[in-house]
Amino acid sequence: MGGQIFHFSPDFLNLLIDTIPKLCKSKKDVIIFFSSAGVSQKILADVSEKVNKDASSINKYEIARTVLVRLNEAGDHVLRERREIVKRVAEFDDFSRCWPNDRIAAMGLVAKVREMINVKDSFTRIQQDCESRLEEDRKKRQAQEQARVEDLKQKRQK
Questions:
Q1: Residue 94: phi, psi to the nearest 5?
Q2: Is 142 helix (H, G, I), strand (E, B) or coil?
Q3: CB burial class (10 A; 0-12, 13-18, 19+) of residue 10?
Q4: What is 14-59 written as a DSSP string?
Q5: How many Å from the N-terminal Cα to the C-terminal Cα in the chain?
Q6: Up-side HSE of residue 11: CA atoms within 13 Å toward CB?
Q7: 16 near 86, Cβ under 8 Å?
Q8: Tell me, what DSSP letter sits at residue 6?
Q9: Distance CA 52, CA 58 (A)
Q10: Are 119 and 11 in contact (CB under 8 A)?
Q11: Pick from 7, 41, 91, 118: most CB atoms within 10 A?
Q12: What are the residues whose beta carbons fall under 8 Å from the beta carbon of 4, sequence distance 6 or more?
């Protein structure tokens, strides 16, 4: 059973679902947020239509969940869009555009997103450092082996 591996882990996905609606005042703003991050109209079409026809039929959190789950399920060809969404959330700094009751919560959620990104980035840096050390060791052993082979060739020639 080859299941698909999602880019967003469940905890990070839920964090984004909680955060994005707090950053946007209206349902249309949530759609604009995703659209401006490069999400295709194909992915946004039905939720956008719901908002335009009967805004009370869907809330901001459902919009965020629907779009983010679709992006998560879409695989690597929407990696750029997923990264752009995360980048925009992490770089969000003008909380004056949020509803007054949501400002503090939005600040905390954005801080949590940044924290999770930093943990992931730290893990990635550690992993890359380990891989580079292994590569250096491999190259060093290869050079030593090459030098030993050259030594043997010279001894044979003498």
A1: -105, 85
A2: helix
A3: exposed
A4: HHHHHHHHHH-SSHHHHHHHHHHTT--HHHHHHHHHHHHH-GGGS-
A5: 61
A6: 6
A7: yes
A8: P
A9: 10
A10: no
A11: 7
A12: 73, 75
Distances (CA, A) of 53 to 48, 50, 57: 9, 5, 9
CA pair distance 11, 113, nearest whole angstrom? 10
Task: Give 43-76 pLDDT, tens digit per residue.
Answer: 999 999 999 999 899 999 999 999 999 999 988 8
Longest CA–CA span in the chain (Å) reads 91
Closest CA to 65 of 108, 112, 23, 10: 10
67: helix, coil or strand? helix
Residues 1-50 pLDDT 10s: 455 667 788 899 999 999 999 999 999 999 999 999 999 999 999 999 99
- Cβ pair 108, 98 in contact under 8 A: no
State the Cα–Cα distance between residues 30 and 110, nearest whole angstrom: 16
Q: How far is CA 13 from the centre of its chain?
A: 9
Q: Are 3 and 46 in contact (CB under 8 A)?
A: no
Q: Are 12 and 43 in contact (CB under 8 A)?
A: no
